[in-house]
Amino acid sequence: MKFVVSKSLSLILSVLSVSLAAPVFANLQPATVLDLPAKDKYLLVAEMETGRLYAFEKDNGMRLKKVAEYPISIGKQGYDKRIEGDAKTPIGVYRVTSYLTDAQLDDFYGRAAFPLNYPNAWDRLNGYTGSGIWLHGEPTDKKTRPLRDSDGCIVLSNEDIFKVQKYLDVGYTKVVSVPKVEWKDSDEIARSRSEITRAIDDWRKDWMSKSHNRYLSNYSREFNDTEKNYAQWDRYKKRVNGSKRFIKVKLSDLGLYAYPGQDNLVMAEFYQDYRSSNFRSKGWKRQLWKKENGEWKIVYEKGG
Known about the structure:
GO terms for molecular function: carboxypeptidase activity; transferase activity. By secondary structure, the chain is an alpha+beta fold. Helix content is about 25%, strand content about 35%. It folds into two domains: about 30-185, L,D-transpeptidase catalytic domain-like; about 185-304, Roll (Nuclear Transport Factor 2, Chain: A), CATH 3.10.450.50.
């Protein structure tokens, strides 16, 4: 009888343990992704320290579910690329820009390749150099592939590169490169998303108000779009916005990414519909927001 009771108790505790642990695990999300644009169904996250590439699928809400995992190789000298030729893989948020087929490639790149937009805005602001960072296959005669094996690219087997292809929408899908995936509770991510979303909406409303002081209050004194610094942006926007009788701005397809390797830095992208008394434009815009003294400020902004 003692054995039966002990066995039953053990079973109950086991079931209880699973029931308590499962929801907690289910609530964990990659901390880098605060929001995906409505058009994006998938996201790739490359973990440098373990050499793993994770494919995530977005559900009807904002939850991400891991749907696949692949072994990868990274730069011979590791990660955190800064200089051309340093044989390191960059850390950051990148976009797949094109698709190169077997017929377009040397055997070195395997049977398919997907170039990424390195250097991105953050890389350029920091003076990082180099180019040609791809997601690609391996030479057909490759027998072994250690973790650190490439000139900086993210390398998969030829079999896996074609499996990954179904998750890639050229021009849109993001590949987030991180030292190690950090997981956060979905409620915590929702709070962060709400905070930065409010800041972006305040910026939009301040722009439409035509009050230059209100508009400029959203920008950091460290602002630089690689063409204009804060003072130049101040003068330029005061002149341009001052010539309008009205300004209307609508935003859609918002994407938000807590920038890997940086504290309190968020990359935002959205589709902007701008209309004023003398100009109309539609297109994508990207911004970098940095938290300064408890307030979110724009340090970079560029359309296209």
